[in-house]
C-alpha cells in the first residue's frame, strides 16, 4: 500500500510504502487509487486508542473510506466513514532517477545538522564528493558548515557511507528538511540521494516499509 502527498506549492512530495505481508490481514482484489484528505484522516485516527487495531476498507469505485477501530480486548468497536476526494491524477510525479551521489548516515545526526544550521539562515548547501559531504549555510549573521567523512562503524548511529560518481552541490530550504527529519524516530539511518537539478531524496526504512521525501532544489537567485 502506497500513500503519496504533495504540498500546495508543489515543492515537496512524500511517499509512504507499507508492505502487505506486515499487515495482520491484507486483501486487495485489484489496484485502486483513493483520494484522501490527510487532515481529515488524521482527525479520525486520533479517535483510536493507543492499543486499538485499525481496519481500512474501500469498495470498488468507493466514495468513502471505512475506518474501524477495535479495542485490544474487543470491548469497544468504532466505525467511521471518511468522504473521498476526486483526484486530478491517480499518481503524483515520482519517477525513477539515477543519482550521482548516495549518502547513508545516522538520521539523528542529519537532523541535528539541519537544526543547528537553521539558526543562521533558511537555505542549506549540500555538496558531496568521494571523500566528504559538506553541509553549509551563509546568512546575515554569519556562516557555518558541517563536514562528514565516511566511516565503516558497526554502530548504525555512527556509520556513514558516501558513494559519489561526480561532484554535486545544491541548495535546499531547511524548513522542509527539518519537517522531514521528524521521520528520524522511524529509522536509525537516512539515505540521501542527490543529482544536479532534480529533487533531493531522503529515504527512511523501517520494519513496516519505507518513507521517502522529495524536495525540489532552490535556484541560485532564490537561495
Automatic annotation (TrEMBL):
Coiled coil ranges: none
Location (main, coarse): nucleus
Subcellular localization(s) per the UniProt record: Nucleus
GO molecular function terms attached to this record: DNA binding; DNA polymerase processivity factor activity
The protein's name: DNA sliding clamp PCNA
Keywords: DNA replication, DNA-binding, Nucleus
Function: This protein is an auxiliary protein of DNA polymerase delta and is involved in the control of eukaryotic DNA replication by increasing the polymerase's processivity during elongation of the leading strand.
InterPro entries: DNA_clamp_sf, Pr_cel_nuc_antig, Pr_cel_nuc_antig_C, Pr_cel_nuc_antig_CS, Pr_cel_nuc_antig_N
One GO CC term on file: PCNA complex
Residue span(s) of domain Proliferating cell nuclear antigen PCNA N-terminal: 2-89
Family per record: Belongs to the PCNA family.
Residues annotated as domain Proliferating cell nuclear antigen PCNA C-terminal: 93-218
Single GO biological process annotation from the record: regulation of DNA replication
Pfam families per UniProt: PCNA_C, PCNA_N
Matching PROSITE patterns: PCNA_2
Amino acid at each position: 500500500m502506497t500513500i503519496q502527498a504533495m504540498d500546495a506549492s508543489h515543492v515537496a512530495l512524500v511517499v509512504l510504502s507499507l508492505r502487505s505481508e506486515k499487515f495482520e490481514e491484507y486483501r486487495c482484489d485489484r489496484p485502486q487509487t483513493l483520494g484522501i484528505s490527510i487532515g481529515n484522516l488524521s482527525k479520525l485516527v486520533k479517535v483510536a486508542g493507543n492499543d486499538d487495531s485499525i481496519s481500512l476498507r474501500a469498495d470498488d469505485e468507493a466514495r468513502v473510506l471505512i475506518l474501524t477501530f477495535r479495542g485490544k480486548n474487543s470491548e469497544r468497536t468504532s466505525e467511521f466513514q471518511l468522504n473521498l476526494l476526486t483526484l486530478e491524477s491517480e499518481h503524483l510525479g515520482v519517477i525513477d532517477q539515477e543519482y550521482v551521489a548516495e549518502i547513508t548516515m545516522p538520521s539523528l545526526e542529519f537532523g541535528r545538522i539541519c537544526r543547528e544550521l537553521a539558526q543562521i539562515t533558511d537555505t542549506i548547501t549540500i555538496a558531496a564528493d568521494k571523500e566528504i559531504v559538506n553541509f553549509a549555510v551563509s546568512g546575515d549573521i554569519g556562516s557555518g558548515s558541517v563536514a562528514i567523512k565516511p566511516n565503516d562503524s558497526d554502530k548504525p548511529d555512527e556509520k556513514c557511507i558516501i558513494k559519489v560518481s561526480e561532484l554535486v552541490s545544491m541548495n535546499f530550504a531547511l524548513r522542509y528538511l527539518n519537517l522531514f527529519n521528524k521521520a528520524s524516530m522511524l529509522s536509525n539511518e537516512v539515505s540521501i540521494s542527490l543529482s544536479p537539478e532534480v529533487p533531493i531524496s531522503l529515504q527512511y526504512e523501517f520494519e513496516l516499509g519505507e518513507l521517502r521525501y522529495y524536495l525540489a532544489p532552490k535556484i541560485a537567485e532564490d537561495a
